[in-house]
Specification:
The protein has 245 residues and is of the alpha/beta class. The protein is built from six helices and twelve strands. The strands form two sheets. Strands 2-1-3-4-12-11 form a six-stranded mixed sheet, with helices on one face. Strands 5, 6, 7, 8, 9 and 10 form a six-stranded mixed sheet that branches. It is globular, with a radius of gyration of 17 Å.
C-alpha cells in the first residue's frame, strides 16, 4: 500500500478515560498501520478541548471511573449531533468499557440516570454485583466466525434492542449475563465491555477496523498479512484456558 495513504486516529479524553489500557489499543492501530507502510496521525482530545470529528478516520472512546465517565458523557452529549453525522457517514468508532454504555439512550451511573448519545438502541442499568473476569466470545465481526478474548470489569448491565451484538458469550458475563450477548455492532461502530486492552489480544479485530476506515476514506483496502505468530499463540492460549469445558 502506498505511503501516501494516511489514517487519522482521534483518542477522546485520554486524560479522563484511560483506566484499562487504551493506549495499547492506540498502539495497535498505529503499529499495524506502520508495518504496512500506512501513515497515521494521532489527535488527542482532552478536557476543555473543542471536539471535532471532521478529520477523524478512527475514533477511540475508552473507560474510566464513574465521575470521569459522567463528565465525559455530558461533554459528548453537548456535541452529539456531530457524533451522529460521523457515524451516519460510516466513521469507525471503537467504544470500550465505560465508553460503551454512552452510546445508548441512557446509562445509570452510581444510581443516577444519565442521558447517552443515542447512537444505538440500548440502555444500561446498575448491576447488583460487579463483574470481573476473562471473557471469550464467538464473533462474526471480522470475516466469518472468530473467537475474541478480553477482560471485563463493570458494575452495569446493558440491554441491546435493534442492533447486532459484537459476539456470543462462550465464557464470561457480557452485556447482562442473561442473553449471552456481548457488545454491539452498528454500521462501523464497535462497542464492547472488553478491555485488557482489547486490540493487542485480537489483531483480526484491529485489522477489520482499519480496513473499514480505509474503505471509507479511499474506497478500497488491501491489507498485507502480518507475521502474527506470537499474537495468535497468545490468543489461542486465552481461548483454551478460559473457554467453558
Amino acid at each position: 500500500m502506498s505511503d501516501a495513504k494516511k489514517l487519522t486516529i482521534c483518542h477522546l479524553f485520554p486524560d479522563l478515560l484511560d483506566l484499562y489500557g487504551d493506549k495499547g489499543n492506540i498502539l495497535s492501530f498505529v503499529k499495524r498501520l506502520e508495518w504496512r507502510g500506512i501513515n497515521s496521525e494521532l489527535i488527542e482530545v482532552k478536557r476543555d478541548d473543542k471536539i471535532s470529528l471532521a478529520d477523524a478516520d478512527i475514533v477511540l472512546l475508552g473507560g474510566g471511573s464513574d465521575r470521569e465517565q459522567k463528565a465525559v458523557c455530558e461533554y459528548l452529549c453537548a456535541v452529539k449531533t456531530d457524533f451522529w453525522s460521523y457515524v451516519d457517514d460510516g466513521g469507525v468508532l471503537l467504544a470500550v468499557c465505560g465508553g460503551y454504555p454512552m452510546l445508548g439512550s441512557y446509562l445509570n451511573i452510581a444510581g443516577e440516570k444519565v442521558g447517552g448519545l443515542g447512537i444505538v438502541d440500548m440502555y444500561t442499568e446498575q448491576n447488583k454485583n460487579r463483574v470481573i473476569g476473562n471473557v471469550v466470545l464467538e464473533s462474526d465481526f471480522a470475516n466469518g466466525k472468530n473467537t475474541v478474548v478480553g477482560f471485563e470489569n463493570h458494575g452495569t448491565k446493558t440491554y441491546i434492542k435493534k442492533c447486532q451484538p459484537f459476539g456470543k458469550v462462550i465464557n464470561g458475563f457480557g452485556n447482562n449475563g442473561e442473553d449471552e450477548t456481548e457488545g454491539i455492532v452498528y454500521k462501523n461502530v464497535l462497542g464492547t465491555y472488553l478491555h485488557g486492552p482489547l486490540l493487542p489480544k485480537n489483531p483480526h479485530i484491529t485489522d477489520e477496523l482499519i480496513k473499514r476506515a480505509l474503505i471509507r476514506k479511499y474506497g478500497q483496502a488491501e491489507l498485507e498479512p502480518l507475521y502474527d505468530t506470537l499474537e495468535d499463540e497468545a490468543h489461542s492460549y486465552a481461548v483454551n484456558r478460559f473457554s467453558k469445558k
